[in-house]
UniProtKB/TrEMBL annotation:
<dbReference type="InterPro" id="IPR001714">
    <property type="entry name" value="Pept_M24_MAP"/>
</dbReference>
<dbReference type="InterPro" id="IPR000994">
    <property type="entry name" value="Pept_M24"/>
</dbReference>
<keyword id="KW-0378">Hydrolase</keyword>
<dbReference type="GO" id="GO:0006508">
    <property type="term" value="P:proteolysis"/>
</dbReference>
<comment type="function">
    <text>Removes the N-terminal methionine from nascent proteins. The N-terminal methionine is often cleaved when the second residue in the primary sequence is small and uncharged (Met-Ala-, Cys, Gly, Pro, Ser, Thr, or Val). Requires deformylation of the N(alpha)-formylated initiator methionine before it can be hydrolyzed.</text>
</comment>
<protein>
    <recommendedName>
        <fullName>Methionine aminopeptidase</fullName>
        <ecNumber>3.4.11.18</ecNumber>
    </recommendedName>
</protein>
<feature type="binding site">
    <location>
        <position position="238"/>
    </location>
    <ligand>
        <name>a divalent metal cation 2</name>
    </ligand>
</feature>
<dbReference type="GO" id="GO:0004239">
    <property type="term" value="F:initiator methionyl aminopeptidase activity"/>
</dbReference>
<feature type="binding site">
    <location>
        <position position="179"/>
    </location>
    <ligand>
        <name>substrate</name>
    </ligand>
</feature>
<feature type="binding site">
    <location>
        <position position="172"/>
    </location>
    <ligand>
        <name>a divalent metal cation 2</name>
    </ligand>
</feature>
<feature type="binding site">
    <location>
        <position position="80"/>
    </location>
    <ligand>
        <name>substrate</name>
    </ligand>
</feature>
<keyword id="KW-0479">Metal-binding</keyword>
<feature type="binding site">
    <location>
        <position position="206"/>
    </location>
    <ligand>
        <name>a divalent metal cation 2</name>
    </ligand>
</feature>
<keyword id="KW-0645">Protease</keyword>
<dbReference type="GO" id="GO:0070006">
    <property type="term" value="F:metalloaminopeptidase activity"/>
</dbReference>
<dbReference type="GO" id="GO:0046872">
    <property type="term" value="F:metal ion binding"/>
</dbReference>
<comment type="subunit">
    <text>Monomer.</text>
</comment>
Length: 253
């Protein structure tokens, strides 16, 4: 099993900066998210802001061949949606924007849902459930608990809402690398390795919640875009979390 890196105070300082910048991109882009804007335009605005204003690097651009600076996932797209000129957001859509940046050699990673214009009740409910499942799981974080308690918390909440959890993708350790150990499941798996949280661990939690079946597929055309098999809506929120001496700190807040 890959060794989990415990961050020192210097690394934590850099991670705070990177997390803050990633959050600021999501804050900045909201004003542009109106019907008839293309996801390519959204990508370009974010790219320019990251590079020119923040003097940072878009972490997604070129990562394992990913062609754009952010991910834009609309309606039934679960994750890794590639911005392009043909995808125009419409009134009633929900869209996840996933931002990852590199500053001073360290990564910040966060995403959230945006509801465009007048949305359906189901759209509102699934976005709220995804966000609340994330926030509830964060609240239990402290040194000494098992990592699997995070997935257990998310699963318990989502089951009550009669939605489903995507199992193919998970949260991850993060630092001077984009993806590190540990890998954070968003459901409970009793056979998962027992990992005890320690002060100085930093990882993302990013539950992907479907309105229908949990089954998903990856586009055979672009090899990136993940969609729900039954075309049901999907929602995701993500934060980067530091385990502190007595609890947690959200670095992307």
């Amino acid at each position: 099993m890959q060794k989990i890196k415990i961050k020192n105070q210097t690394e934590i300082k850099f991670m705070r900066t990177a997390g803050k910048l990633a959050f600021e991109v999501l804050n900045m882009i909201e004003q542009y998210l109106k019907p008839n804007i293309s996801t390519e335009d959204i990508n370009q605005i974010c790219h320019n802001y990251i590079v020119n204003q923040q003097k940072a690097i878009p972490a997604c651009l070129g990562y394992n061949g990913f062609p754009k600076s952010i991910c834009t996932s609309i309606n039934d797209v679960v994750c890794h949606g590639i911005p392009n000129e043909k995808d125009i957001i419409q009134n009633g859509d929900i869209i996840n924007i996933d931002i990852a940046i590199i500053k001073n050699g360290y990564y910040g990673d966060t995403s959230k849902m945006f509801l465009i214009g007048k949305t359906s009740l189901l759209s509102q409910q699934i976005c709220q459930a995804a966000q609340e499942s994330l926030l509830q799981s964060i609240k239990i974080i402290k040194p000494g608990i098992q990592l699997s308690e995070i997935g257990k918390s998310i699963q318990k909440y989502i089951k009550k809402k009669n939605f489903s959890i995507v199992k193919e993708y998970c949260g991850h350790g993060i630092g001077s690398s984009f993806h590190e150990a540990p890998y954070v499941l968003h459901y409970y798996e009793k056979y998962h390795p027992k990992i005890i949280l320690q002060e100085g661990m930093i990882f993302t939690i990013e539950p992907m919640i479907n309105a229908g079946s949990s089954e998903v597929y990856c586009s055979p055309h672009d090899k990136w875009t993940v969609r729900t098999k039954d075309k049901s809506l999907s929602a995701q929120y993500e934060h980067t979390i530091l385990v502190t001496k007595k609890g947690y700190e959200i670095l992307t807040n």
